[in-house]
Q: What sequence folds into this?
């Protein structure tokens, strides 16, 4: 069975409504929901009340995997900034296990292989896989480069809103 890729809407409650309804309507299908409060985890230690409510509900569904959004800006974003965002998302699960994400989705990853890009991706992927507050250490990334596939588990080459095309 396929796995729909669901970028969460910017309004968390709207995302909750649409993603929760899809997930409950198709219980045998696995969903991955990307959580992106503010082009990353946002400013506070925990997400706002809307995201908190949405995460708690989505994390109760066995067929939903929630992952946090981190832009790498084509590996130009400082590695310490990326590691700080990973730590922020992981901190949600440490403070409140019902908010624990399953991993991180890295957007804007490099598409050209270089030794520096490998080092960068290896470092940030390792941080996800070893973070205590992330439930599964799941790594997803946006790429067209086959050479970088060793660093992720979910890959997107096209993003769009998912519309069910099969009957439950």
A:
């Amino acid at each position: 069975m396929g796995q729909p890729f669901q970028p969460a809407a910017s309004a968390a409650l709207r995302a909750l409504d649409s993603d929760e309804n899809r997930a409950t309507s198709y219980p045998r299908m696995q969903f991955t929901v990307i959580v992106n409060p503010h082009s990353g985890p946002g400013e506070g230690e925990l997400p706002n009340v809307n995201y908190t409510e949405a995460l708690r509900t989505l994390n109760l569904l066995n067929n939903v995997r929630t992952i946090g959004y981190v832009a790498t800006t084509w590996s130009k974003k400082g590695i310490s900034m990326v590691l700080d965002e990973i730590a922020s998302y992981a901190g949600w699960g440490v403070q409140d296990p019902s908010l624990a994400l399953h991993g991180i989705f890295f957007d804007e990853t490099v598409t050209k292989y270089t030794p520096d890009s490998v080092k960068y991706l290896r470092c940030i992927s390792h941080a996800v896989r070893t973070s205590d507050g992330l439930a599964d250490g799941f790594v997803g990334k946006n790429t067209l480069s086959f050479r970088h596939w060793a660093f992720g588990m979910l890959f997107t080459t096209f993003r769009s809103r998912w519309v069910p095309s099969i009957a439950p």
Observations:
- Residues 41 and 84 are 10 Å apart (CA to CA).
